[in-house]
Amino acid sequence: MKSVKWFKAAAVATLALATICMAGCGGGGDKKAAAPAAGKKVEYKLAYALPANHPLAKGVESFIAKVKDKTKGEVVITSFPAGQLYNDKTMNDAIMTGGVDMGLNTVGRWATIIPAMEVFDVPFVFPGYEKVDAAIDGGMGKILEEELAKKHVKVVYWADYGFVQYANNKKPIKKPEDFKGLKIRGYSELASETIKALGASPVTMGAGEVYMALQRGTIDGQSSGTSAMRDRKMYEVTKYLTITNHASPEFIVAMNDKSFAKMSEPQQKAFMEAAKEVRDTLRKNAKAEDLKGLEDLKAKGMEVYVVPENEIKNWQAATKPVWDIFTKHAGEQGKKILELCTK
Questions:
Q1: In three state form, how does the secondary structure of 226-238 look?
Q2: 42: Cα separation from own chain's centroid
Q3: Count of other CB atoms within 10 angstroms of residue 321
Q4: Residues 224, 255 within the same domain
Q5: How confident is the model at residue 33 (pLDDT cuts 50, 70, 90)?
Q6: DSSP letter at 151?
Q7: Is the dihedral of CA 53, 263, 145, 147 positive or negative?
């Protein structure tokens, strides 16, 4: 009898001890992980391929300063500009895998993962700066952000790059037919398809390789914004500039979702407030930066041709096949996005 009582008492004690351990040691396997503690210091690395004096790079540095200020020094971001850590070709894989916490890169590089991202490179879709922002805010941005979230990537902010133009060192380009025989660097698949549709040969390479390629004659020209041409000193290796405003390759600051989750909720809120402020400033300045870049390139001796508005239809006709390529890549989602952009 004593042995039975002893056994029952031991069983009760064991059960009580197990209950205490589960409560104190997180024994409930279905419970969510505790949120990061408020006030804990978080450090991040941010990479970008643009030169440090580019307007979008300055936007990144402003964002970093704002985050530090708004979090009272709790969130510290170290930047690695001009491809020091990752170039534009390798950066996105690093963000997705956590090799780097976040990075600034063109949507053209993301299009290899999310085909609908190519919309910004579809030629002559956006007739003005305001139309780009209206499309992002009007539903397109949400669609694309949801697709990136499936890849464990959070969009921190959209960064207006402005419009891209063509520069080359062979001849003035005033109409689509003038592209014939030229080798032009394409920064994305759809940008390369546009070059092909215009009659030139596209050559894909990283942004950091373009200057040397032009200098050596590996390519004859390239496509980018006027501020980037100025900051990368393209006026030293290209003479002719054609203002087409054919595409608006938006950039995004993207972040690994696990890195974002390291912040407490108050830190995340302050972080995203800083992001919105920088986004809004970049939007206001995009057109002015483009025009300033254009004037600087003229002052450096580049010959500039601006495609007249009444001739845009000829360029649209020449590049219309690229629209079909986009919808083939992006499917029904691509058609929906084009409708949002052109309505």
A1: HHHHHHCCHHHCC
A2: 23
A3: 14
A4: no
A5: low
A6: T
A7: positive
Does 92 map to a domain? yes
Which candidate, 181, 184, 187, 194, places its Cα nearest to that of 218?
A: 184
- pLDDT reported for residue 205: 87
Check residue 36 and give its pLDDT. Answer: 79
pLDDT, tens only, 200-252: 999 988 888 999 999 999 999 999 999 889 989 999 999 999 999 999 989 99
User: Is the pTM for the entire model greater than 0.70?
Assistant: yes
- Same domain assignment for residues 178 and 296: yes
Burial class (CB in 10 A: 0-12, 13-18, 19+), 148: buried
Give yes or no: residues 203 and 315 share one domain: yes
Model confidence pLDDT, tens digit, residues 302-333: 999 999 999 999 999 999 999 999 999 999 99
* Mean pLDDT rounded to a whole number for the chain: 90
Instruction: Using CA atoms of 45, 49, 53, 55 in order, give the dihedral in degrees to the nearest 10.
Output: -90
Q: What range does the domain containing 171 cover?
A: 164-248+292-342
Tokens of 200: 């030139």
Q: Residues with Cβ < 8 Å from 2, sequence gap 6 or more? A: none
167-186 core/surface letters (b: 16 or more CB in 10 A; e: else): bbbeeebeebebbeebbbbb
Assigned domain for 34 exists: no
Q: Looking at residue 153, what is its pLDDT?
A: 98
State how far the Cα of 256 lies from the Cα of 56, in Å rounded to an integer: 20
Q: Based on the structure, what is the number of domains in the chain?
A: 2
- Rounded CA separation 119/249 (Å): 9
210: domain CATH number? 3.40.190.170
CA distances from 123 to 111, 165, 319 (A): 15, 11, 7
Same-domain check for residues 86 and 235:
no
Give dist(CA 331, CA 333) in Å, integer.
5
- Closest to 263 in 3D by CA, of 156, 146, 108, 147: 156
Q: Where do the H-state alpha helices sit in 168-311?
A: 189-197, 210-216, 226-231, 257-260, 265-299
What are the residues whose beta carbons fall under 8 Å from the beta carbon of 16, sequence distance 6 or more?
none
